[in-house]
Design brief:
Strand content: under 5%
Largest sheet: none
Helix content: over 70%
Structural class: mainly alpha
Shape: globular
Number of helices: 5
């Protein structure tokens, strides 16, 4: 039951922070129809999951539920990513769609890798 509470709290905090960062980023960097806010949140989330996963592979405790399952789960926005891709496809913005998908996957992968490497030291 305690793990569910940690997931609940972490998810709420992650969701609120996602909303704040995504909105601020989108206002700061409004680049055509590219969903920069979601992109930034997903890349930061990938990095955090890399760092946290590396740490919790060595130290297994209840905080992984708060930070990985809860916080990162609430913070990252793959469902929003998918909905935005659908919108880009529907509006005919194929180059932005392709750029967004490729950049999110490639840069997200690199961010997870870097996160894992940074926390190994």
């Amino acid at each position: 039951m305690r793990n569910l509470f940690y997931i609940f709290v972490g998810g709420g905090l992650g969701s609120v922070l996602r909303f704040l960062i995504s909105n601020y980023t989108q206002k700061l960097w409004n680049i055509n129809s590219f969903p920069m806010g979601t992109f930034v949140v997903n890349i930061v989330g990938c990095f955090l999951i890399g760092v946290l996963t590396s740490y919790f592979l060595r130290v297994d405790n209840y905080l992984k539920f708060l930070l990985i399952t809860g916080f990162c789960g609430g913070f990252t926005t793959f469902s929003t990513f998918s909905a935005e891709n659908y919108s880009l496809w529907e509006s005919g913005n194929y180059m932005v769609l392709l750029s967004y998908i490729l950049l999110s996957i490639i840069v997200g992968f690199v961010a997870v890798y870097v996160g894992l490497q940074v926390s190994k030291n």
